[in-house]
Amino acid sequence: MSPRLLVFGDSLSFHGPDRAEPADEPRLWPNLAATELGGHADLVAGIGWTARHAWHALTTDPRVWALLPRVDALVLAIGGMDTLPSPLPTALRELIPVLRPEALRRRVRSGYLRAQPRLARAFARTLPGGGPVALPPHLTVAHLERCRRAVLAIRPGIPVIATVPPVHRAAVYGPVHPGRPAAERAVRAWAGPAGVALIDLRAVVGDHVLGGHGNPDGMHWGWDGHAAVGRACAETVRALLP
């Protein structure tokens, strides 16, 4: 069997130690996992994607629809960005790129990037739960469950794998990460009853990131990190395939 993996991800699935890479870069973890299984990975991902973006892609992108009848495993490698501090409400923050005129957009973006680390630290110290995140945990698992049900409606019985949120040391976020524990609890509580296998990204690649061995941005992984996650994904999928 040459399994076909449908992988929904964020930039951790296609960003290497120096830059974002094309989806067919063989050193990216989805491709490493597929190669180890003797199969192929179809990556659906974007920078800053949350679980809500994955659901939107699944329901609106006809290229994804074309893949579904041939999928042998679903990998929901999404939800880590949901846990990041978001001092400005997500809906407003996502409007910054479309502000006009361009000079206003540049000023707003620069101001937000300067303020975000300070606000993230301040909120982590003073607000319950550490302040707002990009997507609250209950919405993360709601969108993950929608993705799972939708794919299984077309490919019943295939394995579904998700990820426990990763860690970061990114200066642009403080670096603080107070929203991660609640998100991990929510993902684990959802995954068990739903029959979803989990890859614990903190266990697999946490030392790599926190030890400064990944991308200098403190969030994305080096090739050793991709290799470790690729192996973990392959092992998880292999154990679930017929």
Tell me the name of the CATH class.
Answer: Alpha Beta
- Briefly note the structural class of the backbone: alpha/beta
Strand order of the largest sheet: 2-1-3-4-5
Q: What is the count of DSSP helices, taking H or I runs of 4+ residues?
A: 9
Largest sheet: 5 strands, parallel
Mean pLDDT: 96
Please give the CATH architecture.
3-Layer(aba) Sandwich
Domain SGNH hydrolase-type esterase: 7-228
Protein name: SGNH/GDSL hydrolase family protein
GO molecular function: hydrolase activity
Keywords: Hydrolase
What do you see in this structure?
- Keywords: Hydrolase.
- GO terms for molecular function: hydrolase activity.
- Residues 7-228 form the SGNH hydrolase-type esterase domain.
- This is SGNH/GDSL hydrolase family protein.
- InterPro entries: OctT, SGNH_hydro, SGNH_hydro_sf.
- With 242 residues, the chain is of the alpha/beta class.
- It has a single domain, classed as 3-Layer(aba) Sandwich (Rossmann fold).
- Helices cover 48% and strands 11% of the residues.
- It has helices at residues 29-37, 51-60, 62-67, 90-93, 102-126, 137-154, 180-194, 201-210, 223-240; strands at residues 4-9, 40-45, 73-77, 160-164, 197-200.
- The protein has a five-stranded parallel β-sheet, sandwiched between helices.
- Helix 1 (29-37) packs across helix 9 and helix 6 (137-154) packs parallel to helix 7 (180-194).
- The model has no long low-confidence stretch (mean pLDDT 96).
